[in-house]
Amino acid sequence: GFSRPEKKWIRDIYRGMLKSGDVKLSEISRSIQGDVRLIENRLSLNLMEREISSKIYDSYLPWVRDLIQEDTLISVDLSDVRKEYAREMEYLDKVWDGSEGEVHEGYWFLGIIAHNEDKEKIVPLYQELYSQKAPDFESENTVILNSIEKVKKGIGNKGIVVIDRGGDRRILFKKLHSEEGSGRSTFLIRMNPDKRHLEVRGRRLYPQQVFRRYKYSVELKKKLNLSPVLDNMTLYLLKRTGVDFLNAYK
Fold first, then answer.
1. Could you report the per-residue pLDDT of 127-176, keeping only the tens digit for each?
2. Is the dihedral of CA 215, 219, 222, 225 positive or negative?
């Protein structure tokens, strides 16, 4: 549970955001009655406490877990946040802006959301900014796998993990397919069949060949509007059952 000061901080933060219509700490502080400078300092100190952030997150996932079904799409999005005018922000990194085709100052971003086709509601599950310059940074693969594991621990091993471009990596395939942690996942990965291949029982096969060999849910195929013919940017499905061949991915 939360201590009394933590409850007061959470109440002030949320009320401040609703009243001010803003997420900036200065605007939130102005919306709360009292000395603005003292309020901003108090909110800022608590905001830096990682423990309270973890407690909020751990209490949030069980609250939304009933919204996640077996066929819920759990989208893992890799992106960036542009901070080209920032100068003093800690661990400011060089990130690639794919939409603009250029490198700029900022942070890498990972977001995970859940979506059920029969419901319009999109459920946020996880968000994280990270920098390769931070002292505790290990690798992007570690960030991705740790975030997925945190989500699965909170909602259970339900849903279909979906990763767009950049997700076709051997280490991600092996981890999602393994029984370690929260167990084997059903996952959907975007692949480039002209450049990538899977090693299936000692044989190198391209995605098109594997796609034709292994059965998958007809209902899911209709749901995702998958074509029998894979082009170089088509989503490719690996089912939790029936795909035990992942010895290596290169």
1. 999 999 999 999 999 999 999 999 999 998 888 888 877 787 888 888 88
2. negative
Let me know: does 162 contact 223? Beta carbons within 8 Å.
no
* Vertex 130 angle, CA 126 and 133, to 5°: 165
d(CA 220, CA 242) in angstroms, rounded, equals 16
Distance of CA 208 to the CA centre of its chain: 27
The SS3 of residue 134 is coil
* DSSP symbol at 137: -
Name the pTM for this structure.
Answer: 0.76
Residue with tokens 């279909």: 160
Backbone angles phi, psi at 127, to 5 degrees: -145, 140
Q: Which are the contacts of 137, defined by CB distance < 8 A and separation ≥ 6?
A: 130, 131, 143
- Contact between 177 and 158 under an 8 Å Cβ cutoff? The reply is no
Distance CA 199, CA 210 (A): 10
